[in-house]
Amino acid sequence: MELDEAKKISEDFIQEISDLVSSVEVVGSVRREQPYPRDLDFILIPENPLTFKIDFIKRFKKSIKQIGNKLIRLTYKEIQVDIYIANRNSWETLKLIRTGSVDFNKKLCMLAKNKGWHLYADGKGLYADNKLISNTERGIIETLLGEYIEPSERN
Q1: 3-state secondary structure of 146
Q2: For 96, which of 57, 59, 112, 137 could close a Cys bridge (C-beta 3.0–4.6 Å)?
Q3: Is the pLDDT of residue 155 over 90?
Q4: Quick check: helix, strand or coil at residue 78?
Q5: Nearest-CA neighbor of 41 among 90, 91, 82, 95?
């Protein structure tokens, strides 16, 4: 699909789940402004973590392919959608990791490893000696690369 269509479908999906979430954002290739996204990726924070999955399953039961603790995969308007469940502490790091690209993430992880640090893909953030260096997208990128890189430049 073309980027404009992906953005429209993303907006529709966000509208459809807006009552179930306190925060939601499109990430992945759409956030990177790729001309032909193959799927849609979102991160979200449930409004009510205790009932979110039950409510979500009721709404999308026929289209859910996989549901786990931190990932839901479904088909929406014939497009594969991956939803990553975050909380306030993991939001920024997951936004970074799930925006990608894979090569950009590998570069960040390698830079961290070369310094003896660790970038946790689960959303914990960037750590050195078990101490948090940063758990914000900007902070992690600037710490590892010396400057912030816009999503559209992360390919």
Answers
A1: coil
A2: 137
A3: no
A4: coil
A5: 82
| Strand bridging mode 79-85 / 40-46 | parallel
Note if the pTM is more than 0.85.
Answer: yes
What average pLDDT score do residues 26-48 get?
98
Query: Which position has the token pair 């509208």?
Result: 15
User: Residue 21, by phi and psi: left (phi above 0), alpha (psi -120 to 50) or beta?
Assistant: beta
- Domain range enclosing 139: 91-153
Residue 8 confidence (pLDDT) above 90: yes
| 103 and 74 assigned to the same domain | no
Q: Give the pair of three-digit tokens for residue 3.
A: 């980027």
**pLDDT tens per residue across span 78-87:** 999 999 999 9
Residue type at position 154: R
Name residue 87's beta-bridge partners: none
**Would you state the structure tokens that stand for residue 144, as one six-digit string?**
């590892």
Single out the residue of 71, 95, 82, 86 nearest to residue 13, CA to CA.
Answer: 82
The answer to whether residues 9 and 79 belong to one domain is yes
Residue 66 sits in the same domain as residue 15: yes
Residue 12: band (very low, low, confident or very high) from pLDDT cuts 50, 70, 90: very high
The CATH number of residue 76's host domain is 3.30.460.10
